Amino acid sequence: MSGSLTDIRLFVAAYEERSFTAAAQRENATQSGVSQHVAKLEKRLGIDLFLREKGRIAPTPAAERYYARCLEVLSAYEAANASLDGLKGQLAGEISIGLMPTMTRSALAPSLARFAGEHPNVSVRIVEAYSGVLTREVRAGVFDVAIVPAFPGGSGLSVRPFLTTRETLVSANKGGPLGRVAHLAPVRLSSAGPLRVVLPGPLNTRRQTLTTYFTTHGIDVERTMELDAMMGTLDYVASSAWVTILPAVMMAGDIRGGRFKVNPIAEPRLDLDLVSIQPSRRALSTAAAAFFAILAAETRRLNETWDAKR
Question: Which one of 37, 58, 265, 300 is least enclosed by Cβ atoms within 10 Å?
Fold first, then answer.
């Protein structure tokens, strides 16, 4: 394959962003620099990779084919570097992980405690955000890996199954709208209404899934409130007649009761499929892979614990 790693990296950024300017911002380069590298690459290859018109670029069929091979080159380069990590003794470096509140509320703390104890020389950066933000930032290379609800995917992303967990109806344990329905008892939403439901915003992948479920199965929703603040959502639900719908793995710490009544949604059951996403052009570092393995194991444990006790 012709072209330096810099040429290939900037071509991949331009291809995924569909803009020399956006690619430059992502790669900490200049717009003219990205354009010059791509032009040099096109000259060396003897073929146009982008159509340029009025400040816009569009990949040619040649670029489609070249992009797939470039991802292999960049991933192999990262893997070659990462393969040396284990030869240097203890893991070191920095990892950057993006997680939804679904993951941070129950699974994060025990995962961090174990990882920090086993790998004290690794600096960990965790950012909590909703799926739309996490997906955008992973594609840009800000995070090594993130966990989001399953979605069709897209260019620049490697998507793998992570976990399937039930969706649950969460309400106040005392004075909530479910009356005599017992904590942990399955609930049929079409028989539980009218409901006042706190929902995430439209950038959250789960929003459309929940809205579709309500419409398809005749759920009587009296009012909705949009809150993209998980702590605020939980506090509000705990002190009001409003309810929300949250993944079971997130509510594992509430199995024994407390502020919330948690009821799995049934007839029909509603599941949430979670996936891991990472940049296609980058292999997961040894340190990031180690943290991810611990997080995955802890999440499975919590999910199994919830299923066993409900």
Answer: 58
